[in-house]
Amino acid sequence: MENIIQIKGNVKFSITMDPGVWIFDDRKVDLTTYFLEDHQEQDDELAKYKKDISKQWDREITEGATIPPTSSTKPLFEKEKLLNGTFAIPFKPFLKNAEVGENAKALIIKTSDSEVEIPIDEAFKLLLGFSLNGKPLREDGPIHVYYGDGSNQNKPITNVIEMRVI
């Protein structure tokens, strides 16, 4: 149970997060390249869906409705990436599901030896690291917390026990 992190406090629903299952989540991002790329805020998953459907429609118009064959090495590459990758997941969906109170001011990240307070608007931009070189973060985990701007990329918040909205 030491790998479970809770979001509680000034939220409508307390959320229990299990970083052990995030490797299978499509929202995960590659931390080795994430802060090098330009990220545009997409508030709505519907916008992403519409963009994907639009691409598919355009491809079908120009190339026809046939699906090009995929390379037989792609599944092997994806498996290798999962086994050796360094991943994080955006914190925003968890906060949205918890339904942060309208008067919430900050997120307190409690670690094994201290507490870090982050303004609530910045909390929505956090990334939660859960894998380093294909391995779970057992020694100083279960998660590492990264600021959305990458300013603590080389020194994330570690040994996280709990997250509390105030």
Furnish the topology, listing elements before pairings.
Elements: E1 5-9, E2 15-17, E3 29-30, H1 31-34, H2 45-63, H3 74-84, E4 87-90, H4 92-98, E5 106-111, E6 115-119, H5 120-123, E7 127-132, E8 135-136, E9 144-146, E10 160-165
Parallel strand pairs: 1-10
Antiparallel strand pairs: 1-2, 3-4, 4-7, 5-6, 5-10, 7-8, 7-9
What does this structure look like?
- The chain is of the alpha+beta class.
- Helix content is 27%, strand content 25%.
- It contains 5 helices and 10 strands.
- The strands form 2 sheets. It has a 5-stranded mixed sheet. Strands 3, 4, 7, 8 and 9 form a 5-stranded antiparallel sheet that branches.
- The protein is globular and about 60 Å long.
Q: Short summary of the structure?
A:
The protein is α+β, with helices and mostly antiparallel strands and 166 residues long.
Helix content: 25-40%
Give the ordered list of helices and strands: EEEHHHEHEEHEEEE
Would you identify the regions where 5 or more consecutive residues have pLDDT less than 50? none
Strand content: 25-35%
Task: Give, in spatial order, the strands making up the sheet with the most strands.
Answer: 2-1-10-5-6
Please give the number of β-strands: 10
Rg, nearest Å: 18 Å
The termini sit apart by 24 Å
* Count of DSSP-assigned helices: 5
Shape: globular
Average of the residue pLDDT scores: 84
Sheet/helix structural class: alpha+beta
Largest sheet: 5 strands, mixed
